[in-house]
């Protein structure tokens, strides 16, 4: 259950920064970088050679979200970032449901 927080806390941080900060500055980028690193810690719950495909897709979606958020001020609108947040959140939910341990 604790590893699930590694998914939701960074997504919450991205959502708060995207919806409350009009123009990003270096402290905001630093917080986004730390949130990105926390999201990467969620991969620790899998063995090194046994990462499921849905987890790889979720990580790719988060990479895309991170890059889009970095370039938000110059090229994108916050609405597009919110859509990407929703897609990433949906993939996280799908990963959690699919990789839930089944009783033996």
Question: If you had to describe this structure to a student in words, what would you say it looks like?
Answer:
It comes from Planococcus antarcticus DSM 14505. This is Holin. Keywords: Membrane, Transmembrane, Transmembrane helix. The chain has 104 residues and is mostly helical. The chain has one domain. The longest helix has 21 residues.
Can you lay out the helices and strands and say which pair or pack?
Blueprint: H1 2-20, H2 26-41, H3 53-70, H4 72-75, H5 78-98
- Helical content stands at over 70%
Rounded radius of gyration (Å): 14 Å
Low-confidence stretches: none
Report how far apart the termini are.
Answer: 19 Å
Number of strands: 0
Please state roughly what percent of the residues sit in beta strands, choosing from under 5%, 5-15%, 15-25%, 25-35%, 35-45% or over 45%.
under 5%
* General shape: elongated
Residue-averaged pLDDT: 83
* Tally of DSSP helical segments: 5
Q: Can you write the helix and strand succession as a string?
A: HHHHH
Largest sheet: none
Organism: Planococcus antarcticus DSM 14505
Protein name: Holin
Keywords: Membrane, Transmembrane, Transmembrane helix
Structure at a glance:
With 104 residues, the protein is mainly alpha-helical. The chain contains 5 helices and no strands. The protein is elongated and about 40 Å long.
């Amino acid at each position: 259950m604790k590893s699930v927080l590694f998914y939701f806390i960074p997504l919450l941080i991205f959502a708060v920064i995207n919806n409350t900060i009009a123009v990003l500055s270096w402290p905001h980028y630093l917080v986004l970088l730390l949130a990105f690193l926390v999201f990467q810690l969620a991969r620790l719950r899998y063995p090194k050679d046994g990462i499921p495909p849905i987890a790889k897709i979720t990580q790719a979606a988060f990479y895309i979200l991170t890059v889009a958020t970095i370039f938000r001020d110059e090229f994108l609108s916050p609405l597009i970032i919110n859509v990407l947040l929703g897609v990433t959140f949906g993939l996280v939910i799908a990963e959690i449901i699919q990789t839930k341990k089944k009783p033996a």
